[in-house]
C-alpha cells in the first residue's frame, strides 16, 4: 500500500498539467499508474464509463467497468506501453462501452516516465466517425482539435525531423516571440534558436537518441524568452513515425519554476515537519519553566518596595522572562506551516522581537545594527512572512562577509509621489515603510545584480538560489517593491517598500508598574490538575492568596478519583492540556459526567489554534506562560459568568 501511495505521489507531477490542458476535452482522456489503475480521467471519459463522479474511478481498472472481452483488449496495449516504455497508436473497433454504446476509437498511449522508467501512462481516445457520419461533423471535430492545439495552456510545437518549426501554438509564440507575434512568420526557424546556449548540446544528443530509438524523451532544459529571461522548462518530445521512419516531432513544454519549488519543498517537508513537532514539544516544556520563573519573580517584585536593594535585579529577571516568552512564541510561529494570515503589525515592536533571532543567525565577527525610526505606522503583512524576509536578507548579507563586517537594518517612512513611483517599478503613490538591509560585504557585479531575484540563481556552491526569490515573491504579494544597490567590493543594500496601514502612532512610553490585581471572586473550591510539580504549586499559591480553597492532582486519574470522593462542591477545574493517559480535553469531559456544572479552564504551552474548536466549547483557554494577574483575571471571568 505504501508503494502504491508513493507511486500516486510521483504521478501528481503529470496530473496537474494534463488536467489543465485536457480536462475539458471532448475526447476521453485518462491517466493510469503502473498497475493499470486509474488515477485521473476527464469528464468525457467518466461519461463514457457511466460515472457520476470522476473520483469513483480512482484505484479501479478497466475490468471494473468494461465487459471482460473489451477490458482485455484495452489492457493489452497498455501493458506493452509500460513494458517497452514506448508510445503506441492503435485502432479499436466496436468496443462495448459501459454507457451502452458500441464505439470505435483511435487510441494514443504515451508512457509517463521518471528517470527513464515508466510509472504510468496517458491515454487519449479519438472516436472514429461511423460510416453514416456527415462530412461537416468530421470537419467540426478537426476544427476542434486545431483550436485545442492553438489555445492550449501548455506550450506546444511541431517540427520536422531536423528541428525546423512547422507550427507553434499561441502560448509558445507569446513566450518566445512576444504577444504581437501571431502574424510573425516562424515556419522554418529551428527550435534550437530558443534553447539556452549551454543546453544546446544536451538537446541535440537527446534528439539523436529519440530518432535512433524512435521513442519519446523527457528532459529539463533552460530556454530563452523573447525578452531575454531564462526559463526552466520540462520538455516532452514525441517522434511522429511513418513507415518506420521519424518524419517529425511533437513537443510540449511546461514551466518548471513552480514544480522545482514544490520538489524542494517536498524534500524539505519531512525535516520541517519534524522541526515543527520538536519545536512544539520544546515550547510546551519551556513554557512550563517560564510560567514558574515569570510567576514567582512577578510575585516577589509585587511584594518588594522599590527601595529594596534587589528590586532592580528582580525587575530585570521579570523583563528577561517576558522576552524569553516572546522569543519562544516567535520560534513557534516561524516553524509553523499555517497559511499566511496578514494582520497589522507594529514595525518597531516586530523589529525588536526579530532582532534577538537574527543575532543567532550571524557570526560573532559580524556586527548587527538595527536603527528604528520614530512614529512609523503599522503595515499589513503576515508576521511569519515578514520574519522570512528579514531572515533571508540577513543570511544573504552574512554569506557575503565570510571574514566579518557589519549589517545595518533601518526603517523609515517614505512618501511616494507620481514621479518617484517610476523609480520603484511604477508602484502606487502613497506612504510606505522603507526597510533597508545593508552589508559591507563583497558586493555584486552588474551581471549578478540583474539576476539576483531569479529562482535557483546562486553564486555559491552550497547555495539553493531560492532565498532572494522568496523575498521578492513575498514583497510583491503585499503590493510592495524591492530594489538592490551593489558594486563589487562596496557592499550591498536591499531597499524594500511596503505600504502602510493604520495611523501614525507616537513613541510608546514605558508603562508604570501597576499594583497587583485583586481578585473579584473568593472562597471558591478549585481543582488544579498539572503534571509539572512547580507549575502546580505556583497555581496553588496564587489561588490560595486570592482566598480560594484549592485541591490539587498530578494527573487525570487522581483528579477523577478526588472528584468522586470529595463531599463538597467543586466550582472550577483548571487543567493542563497535555498529560499522560488522560489529557485535559478528555479529563474535562469525564469530569462533567461526575460534576455537570463544573467550569473548566484549559492551560497549555501550545497555541489555542492547535485545539479543535468543538473541543473548546464551554472551556476557557489560558496560554502558558502566564503571569499571576493573567490567571486571576481568567478565573474571575469564568466564575463571574453564568453557567
Regions with little confidence, pLDDT below 50 for 5+ residues? 1-7, 503-514
Please identify, by name, the CATH architecture of the largest domain.
2-Layer Sandwich
As for the number of domains, it is: 4
CATH class category label of the largest domain = Alpha Beta
Mean of residue pLDDT? 79
Name the beta content range: 15-25%
Work out the radius of gyration: 33 Å
Percent range of helical residues:
25-40%
What does the largest sheet look like? 7 strands, mixed
- What is the fold named in CATH at topology level of the largest domain? Heat Shock Protein 90
By secondary-structure content and strand pairing, the structural class works out as alpha+beta
Assign an overall shape.
flat
Spatial separation of the terminal alpha carbons: 50 Å
Structure commentary:
The protein has 643 residues and is α+β, with helices and mostly antiparallel strands. The protein folds into 4 domains: 2-143, PAS domain (Beta-Lactamase), CATH 3.30.450.20; 154-255, PAS domain (Beta-Lactamase), CATH 3.30.450; 347-504, Histidine kinase-like ATPase, C-terminal domain (Heat Shock Protein 90); 525-640, Response regulator (Rossmann fold, 3-Layer(aba) Sandwich). It contains 17 helices and 22 strands. Strands 11, 12, 13, 14, 15, 16 and 17 form a 7-stranded mixed beta sheet that branches. It has a 5-stranded antiparallel beta sheet with strand order 2-1-5-4-3, sandwiched between helices. A 5-stranded antiparallel beta sheet has the order 7-6-10-9-8. Helix 7 (257-303) packs antiparallel against helix 8 and helix 8 crosses helix 9. The longest helix has 47 residues, at 257-303. The radius of gyration is 33 Å and the shape is flat. Residues 1-7 and 503-514 have low confidence and may be disordered.
